[in-house]
Amino acid sequence: MTSAPPDPGAAGAAAAALGAAGGLREALRIGSFRRIWVVLSLSSLGDWLALLATTAMAADLTKHSMSQADYAVAGVFILRLVPALVCAPLAGVVADRFDRRTTMVIADVGRFGLFASIPIVDTLWWLLVATFAAEVLSQFWIPAKEATIPNLVPREQLEAANQLSLVTAYGSAPIAAGLFTVLSLLTGTLGARFTFFVAHPTALALWFDAATFAASALTIASLKVPQRREQGGAPQNPLRALAEGWRFVGSTPLVRGLLIGMLGAFAAGGTVVGLAPTFVRGLHAGNPGYGVLFGAVFTGLAGGMLCGPRLLRGLSRRRMFGLMTTLAGLLLTAIALTPQFPVVVGFTLLLGAAAGVAWVSGWTLLGLEVPDAMRGRTFAFVQSSARLTLIAVLALAPLLSGTIGERTLRPTHAVHLAYSGAAVVFLAAGLVATAVGVLCYRYIDDRRGVSLVRDLAAAVGSTSFDADPIATGYFVAFEGGDGAGKSTQVERLADWLRGRDHEVVTTREPGGTMLGAQLRSVLLDVRSVGLSARSEALLYAADRAEHVAAVIRPALHRGAIVVSDRYVDSSIAYQGAGRALSAAEVERLSRWATQGLRPHLTVLLDVDPMVATRRRAGTPDRIEAESVEFHTRVRQGFLDLAERDPKRYLVLDAAGTPADINAAVIARIGDQLPPAPAPVEPTAADSTRPAVRQ
Asked: What is the pTM assigned to this prediction?
């Protein structure tokens, strides 16, 4: 068994992409999520295909009048947007009060029947009615699905699950377009033998669309969806439940801030969608330019969703969301002021990437922070508000652009700058989106007083460490907040390992060496209140450097199993997330102190700070006496670390029984342990180190 390689720190874009791919693979290994991801793929493909097929059929049914065809196609779009305004709030109540799996199955069966019937009835009125009804069912399906996903994956893998879900939802659009083209060509071939397809050229596409919903219903019906709602659930009265959901959104700062940011992003996106064709004509790029711009947005969006969170993995997720929404507004402003089309394309790529990072971060924050009993109504509220904003912008942006018309600025006699109404509206929308992003950032920032510039520089920086390879031994670290039960689990695991003839070294930080014991007395003494955050981080690093050199590395070299109560992650969580320091800076300091040595397995015992406070006995030490807000930031710091590297972490709920937690740890490491070596006398360093605190 070889030692884990040194942590290379934050790498470049290629490493981020590989890390993202690893996280996505880990999420897909979860059987229940993998199946619902397949369901989402089918439903997204069906939605895009339905949009193409219904608009094409609406045009075919009114082909004798160009104006009527325009009205019919517009009617399809309107009927796909309106249900979100009417049904989404009620759909959120249904998602919180009723079985979500049943809700999704009913919605899919209904959509199957509606789309299958459209070619058979073959009238415009039924096309519009069926489109409206199918979209109503979609409004009930979406919050049920969004509220279910956080119950299918561990917290540390929710962001990867959201990345997969969002990329699938948007990435299926070009697949649906290609499939629609293929089915249209196949319909022409079938029309040579079956006259039905001559009169119904979109029938095959609509039936294929219906089949995707049937497959989705069958998959969901066999899916086991765990229920982890708080006791009490939603109120029994639907109107009271709806009002409670609105109050929750309005009274929760995080949700309110996320809603502000998302609505600002949707307003900017709606402006681009509504005015892009006019804007590119002002740049003399025409329809080809519109196609390039459209592709650039979605390419950037996919890249941001996949790689952005990994590239900025050292940055707080709340800060990331606020920063990216602000950046999207600034980029839209730059697009409006840029007269060169190639530069506009570059800015559009970046705009899409910023929007992709913000969307993944915001959606993940909602899934992590909103209680399960409120999650359906919250997602539905955000969804309906976003749709309302999109409709308003799509209606107002062209009107404003047409009213403004062509404008020419003459800063000097020799310089004339011509701007279209679309560019002026882009500029206004960019400025508004920037202001909204700044407001959102200030609302949800969880590291006030810490420089964003320093945090950002640390997040994108890169550091590497050289470590001597260790060919033997196995290293396990237990992490978590004070009161999580780490010491108990260290001893339980050590007893189990000794029972299988392994040499086991149990240790702790701080205090695993004679020097460490002295440092521990300083760090935890309540008389050290006022110790600066940087001094604290350096003292912990000094303890760790001695600990690794005197205890951990010698034990691993002779083939022992080292089980430590705390290691590097505690410094990153406590001094990085808890204190006003950059987590990335603290990580680099710790990696330098340990020469890059990291555990083969890190067991994170996740505990609510309020629960931990009730567990602790006796007088709290200096760290334990910190505020609940401090310990809440520390807890989130641990969870963020586990999310970055799920292969190396085992996250367990510390509320479980000690026996159950021990069994889960044993199940994880049982096949990874090296064979028990021949007994070796312990070194002097091992015999003089203090015992683990019980």
From this structure: 0.56
